[in-house]
Amino acid sequence: RATDVAPQRWRELVRRDDVVVLDNRNSFEYGVGRFRDAVDPGVVNFRDFADYVEDHADEWRENGTKIAMYCTGGIRCEKSSPWMQDLGLQVHQLQGGILNYFKEIPDADADFEGECFVFDNRVTLDTGLRDVGRERSEIDG
């Protein structure tokens, strides 16, 4: 299992030079919002994520690069982190995902650009967990 990183420690981790910040969501979600300097692995479906990791694993191992991985609520990270560790990667995952970060960190907008896509009728949430996507779609209507 990957090392869980509490939201309060995430900011410090992702600013390190030996860390790559890896978005474990699809490219659409990445486009809606992401942590600064995060990598979009170009995911259309989940197997694309595995292909991206495998393509970079040797380089990350050789360079001693740590992976700081996040997703919306933490579930995708829980599923992929054991496999990534089996590849010999140093994996750190954001505890509770983006939504927990927004909940715990009052100035989350200092690290997160855009909004977080959610899979319910709210559509997207801002860093204050306010429902902005549905409001926007009602206005655009």
- Rg result: 15 Å
- The low-confidence runs, each spanning 5 or more residues with pLDDT under 50, are none
The separation of the N and C termini measures: 44 Å
Strand order of the largest sheet: 1-5-4-2
- Amount of helix: 40-55%
How would a crystallographer describe the biggest sheet? 4 strands, parallel
Strand content: 15-25%
Number of helices: 6
Number of beta-strand segments: 8
Q: What sort of overall outline do the alpha carbons produce when their principal axes are compared?
A: globular
Quote the average pLDDT. 91
- Class from secondary-structure proportions: alpha/beta
N-to-C series of helices and strands: EHEHEHEHEHEEEH
What are its keywords?
alpha/beta; 4-stranded parallel β-sheet; two-stranded antiparallel ribbon; 20% strand
Report what the structure shows.
By secondary structure, the protein is an alpha/beta fold. It contains six helices and eight strands; from the N terminus they run E-H-E-H-E-H-E-H-E-H-E-E-E-H. Strands 1-5-4-2 form a four-stranded parallel beta sheet. A two-stranded antiparallel ribbon has the order 3-6. The protein has a two-stranded antiparallel sheet with strand order 7-8. Strand 4 (66-70), helix 4 and strand 5 (90-94) form a beta-alpha-beta unit. It is globular, with a radius of gyration of 15 Å. The mean pLDDT is 91.
SSE blueprint:
Blueprint: E1 3-5, H1 7-14, E2 19-23, H2 27-32, E3 33-35, H3 46-63, E4 66-70, H4 75-86, E5 90-94, H5 97-104, E6 112-114, E7 116-117, E8 124-125, H6 133-140
Parallel strand pairs: 1-5, 2-4, 4-5
Antiparallel strand pairs: 3-6, 7-8
